[in-house]
Write a structure and sequence with these properties.
With 307 residues, the protein is an alpha/beta fold. The chain has 3 domains: 11-94, Arc Repressor Mutant, subunit A (Orthogonal Bundle); 99-172 and 276-302, D-Maltodextrin-Binding Protein, domain 2, CATH 3.40.190.10; 175-273, Periplasmic binding protein-like II (D-Maltodextrin-Binding Protein, domain 2). 43% of the residues lie in helices and 20% in strands. The protein is built from 11 helices and 12 strands. Strand 1 and strand 2 (62-65) form a beta hairpin. It is elongated. 31% of the residues are buried. Keywords: DNA-binding, Transcription, Transcription regulation.
Length: 307
C-alpha cells in the first residue's frame, strides 16, 4: 500500500531533520536554527512518530542514519532545494530585472493555446517579458538547439528531428480537413474528391506532414495536383474563406473559426492523425524560474476545458 503524505508533517520537521544530519549533532543543529536542544529533539520525535519509524540513531559517536533515514534524507534535501529555487525565482522576478522568456509555438499552439497561456503567465510573472516565435517544427527546433529559444511547445516531430531534444507530452491533437461554410464538398463529402480543388498542404519538415501523407494513403487518395504548401494560420484562414480551397491543418489552428461556423470540418476519418503535443527543451539546460512559471501557466490552462 502506498503511503500518502501526512498533513501533520510541517516544514519545521523537514528543516530540523536535515540540519541534524548535516551537523551530526542535536546541539549544533539547535544553535544553527536558533532553537533549544529540547525543542529540536521534540520536533524530530514528532516526525518519527508521524512516519512510524526511527530515522536517526543517537549514540556516543553522535548521530547516524537508519536505512529509512537515508531514504527520507534524499527526498527531504530535494524538497528544501526545490523550495529554495522557488524563493530565488520569486525574488529574481520581484526585483524587476529584465527577464525574458523566449518560447517557440507551432501554429496550432500559437492559435489555440498560447493566448490563454500568455494571459495566465502575465498574471503570475508580470515583470517577465514573454517573447513568442511561431513557425514550422524544423525552424523552431533549430532555434531551440542554438539557444535562441528557451523552450518550444507543439507537436512531437519525427525521430530524426528530435535528437537531443527532451519532450514532455501535454495532450493529443488531430489533423483536420477544413473548408469554408457552403463548400460544394460538404454536400457529398468524399476524401477522394479533394484533388478537384486547391489544397493547402503542410510542407516538408512540418510535424504533421507524415501524418497527412499516412491518412491519404490509408484512404487510397493519390497525388494532389493543385497544392499550396503552408502551415501559416493567417494565410490559411483568409484563403479558405475567399475560395473553395481545402485546408489540411492541425485542429488548434482553425479551432476558433470552426467553433463560430465560418469554417467547417469535413467529416473524414482522421483517427490515425492523432499525435502528441508537448513541451520541448534542451536536456542540458536548467529550467529557469520564469520557465517553471510558464509551465505552471500551461498546466493551469490545460486544466480547463479546451474549446
Amino acid at each position: 500500500m502506498k503511503l500518502m503524505i501526512d498533513r501533520r508533517i510541517k516544514f519545521r520537521h523537514i528543516q530540523c531533520f536535515v540540519e541534524i544530519v548535516r551537523q551530526r549533532s542535536m546541539k549544533n543543529a539547535a544553535e544553527r536554527l536558533f532553537l533549544t536542544q529540547p525543542a529540536i529533539s521534540k520536533t524530530l520525535k514528532e516526525l518519527e512518530e508521524i512516519i512510524g519509524c526511527d530515522l536517526l540513531v543517537r549514540n556516543r559517536g553522535g548521530i547516524s542514519l537508519t536505512r529509512q533515514g537515508e531514504i527520507f534524507l534524499h527526498f527531504a534535501e530535494m524538497s528544501l532545494a526545490a523550495l529554495q529555487q522557488g524563493l530565488d525565482g520569486v525574488e529574481q522576478i520581484g526585483l524587476g530585472g529584465k527577464v525574458t522568456l523566449a518560447v517557440g509555438a507551432l501554429p496550432s499552439v500559437a492559435a489555440r493555446l498560447m493566448p490563454e497561456v500568455a494571459q495566465e503567465f502575465s498574471e503570475l510573472a508580470p515583470e517577465v517579458t514573454l517573447r513568442i516565435t511561431d513557425g514550422p517544427h524544423g525552424y523552431l527546433i533549430d532555434l531551440l538547439r542554438h539557444g535562441q529559444l528557451d523552450l518550444v511547445i507543439g507537436r512531437l516531430g519525427q525521430p530524426e528531428t528530435m535528437k537531443g531534444i527532451t519532450f514532455t507530452q501535454l495532450y493529443n491533437e488531430y489533423v483536420e480537413f477544413v473548408v469554408r461554410a457552403g463548400h460544394p464538398l460538404l454536400d457529398d463529402p468524399d476524401m477522394h474528391r479533394i484533388g478537384e480543388w486547391t489544397v493547402i498542404f503542410p510542407p516538408e519538415g512540418s510535424a504533421i506532414r507524415p501524418l497527412v501523407e499516412r491518412v491519404l494513403i490509408a484512404h487510397g487518395v493519390g497525388e494532389i495536383p493543385r497544392k499550396i504548401e503552408s502551415v501559416s494560420g493567417a494565410f490559411g484562414r483568409n484563403f479558405v474563406r475567399m475560395s473553395d480551397a481545402i485546408w489540411i491543418i492541425s485542429t488548434g489552428v482553425a479551432a476558433k473559426e470552426i467553433a463560430d461556423g465560418s469554417l467547417v470540418r469535413l467529416p473524414f476519418d482522421n483517427a490515425i492523425t492523432s499525435g502528441p503535443v508537448g513541451l520541448m527543451t534542451r536536456p542540458d539546460s536548467q529550467p529557469s524560474p520564469a520557465g517553471e512559471i510558464f509551465r505552471m501557466a500551461v498546466d493551469t490552462v490545460l486544466s480547463r476545458p479546451l474549446d
